[in-house]
Amino acid sequence: MVLPGLLGHLRQMSADSSAGSTPTAGGGEPAGLNAAGSAVTSFDPDSVLPKDMDFVAWVPNYLSHRVEKREKKGDTSLAKRLMLDAFSTSVGWRPTGLNLGQARLFIERFPSGFRLGAMSKVVMPCCKGKAFVCPDGKLPCPFLSTCSALKVIEKKKDIAVDCDPRAWKDIQRVLEKGVQVEWVEFDDYMSYMIYCEGIAVQSDVVVKPHILDTALMFLGFCKSKRGRALQAQAAAGIDAAAAEVDPQNQHGEGANNWRKHSWSA
User: Fold this and answer.
1) What's the structural domain count of the chain?
2) Average pLDDT of every residue of the chain
3) Half-sphere exposure of 62 toward its Cβ, with a 13 Å CA cutoff?
4) Is residue 100 part of a domain?
5) Burial label, 108 (beta-carbon count in 10 A; 0-12, 13-18, 19+)
6) Are residues 204 and 230 in the same domain?
7) CA atoms of 126 and 4, how far apart (whole Å)
8) Does a structural domain hold residue 200?
9) How confident is the model at residue 48 (pLDDT cuts 50, 70, 90)?
């Protein structure tokens, strides 16, 4: 279950992010939530443009003085580490925006299973040395559900008592020191979205063969001598149980029905 009060924070965050959203390039309706908890449309990719950005307010405290000093010298290089507040709550790399269901799942799992390695570095888009900036003045968020879940958890710091110590330590590190950023050049924001989608598809392709291999292993086992022996043993147990419940059932009907639907039939 979602910890008390956290879902309310998440819904409020989703409502706040949807309030200032714009229609999509295809003329879609403003953002709203569908049955799966995702925004039907969230933002216009053409509204995310490369701009000069002051990073002083968005870097960890221990880096802010260094960044400010660098900017005063005219150095406009992009920050290499950013706090979560630097990222938009409505613009990600998926046009549907925040998936409320996925964020809720992360809120449930992070207190016991969050690992810093999963957010060791995020790829951010830029064009000719300028970061792509959203209409709300923040950066597009390549980990929208994760970021939203962490922000909600941050509002409930008293849940640390119920958290796994290692998970809570990693969560605190991200909240206090932000995430490492790698800037990659793109001609426009849509190109970045397509790039991220390609990475996601590659991840699915890597995972799915393992699922198939596992299913084939079970199928091979069921067809093996050992597997058939266990199935016969299970069928005998069904007959014995049926005989105890209904003494007149002495003809192995339970086993016959079971074999009819088993893979060894």
Assistant:
1) 2
2) 74
3) 4
4) yes
5) middle
6) no
7) 39
8) yes
9) very high
